[in-house]
Amino acid sequence: MHSSQPRFSPETGEGQSPMIRHNAGPGIGKPAEAPEPAAPKIRAFDQKLGAGHTDEQWKRTPAQTGQGAVHCRTFHCKLSEDAVANMDRQINEWLDAHPTYEVKLVTSTVGEWQGKLREPQMIVQVWV
Predict the structure, then answer these.
(1) Are 79 and 104 in contact (CB under 8 A)?
(2) CB–CB of 5/19 below 8 Å?
(3) Which residue, 89, 96, 100, 98, is CA-closest to 124?
(4) Contact 94, 86 (CB under 8 A)
(5) Residue bearing the bigger pLDDT, 87 or 45
(6) N or C, which end of the chain has less CB nearby within 10 Å?
(7) Chain segment 24-44, per-residue pLDDT in tens
(8) Neighbours of 121 (CB within 10 A)
(9) Model pLDDT for residues 72-82, shown as the tens digit of each residue
């Protein structure tokens, strides 16, 4: 690439100086502000079985006569010590939140729960 303009020489100061453009934009001379912290990308979800399985939507009041279950609540967890302890905590919190519910029957089984993967799970049903 040949130009009719002579090249700039820093020693002699002759020729055309190179064209350098710099756009620093607004805020020149101002101290840099710290960026806002990013929202966490990891979220915790409660273990729930989906819409329609909430006891707040029950129309019949659970009986406190010691006879006959009216409703059932299902809990499930993976087969690990921590997961079973977490399910115990969930069941106890649910019962504490509903002191008028009288437990009539509890069933438990181990079977495959199909989600993204098929994996063995403990399934507990509490009948009130």
Answers:
(1) no
(2) no
(3) 89
(4) no
(5) 87
(6) N
(7) 555 555 566 666 777 766 665
(8) 19
(9) 999 999 999 99
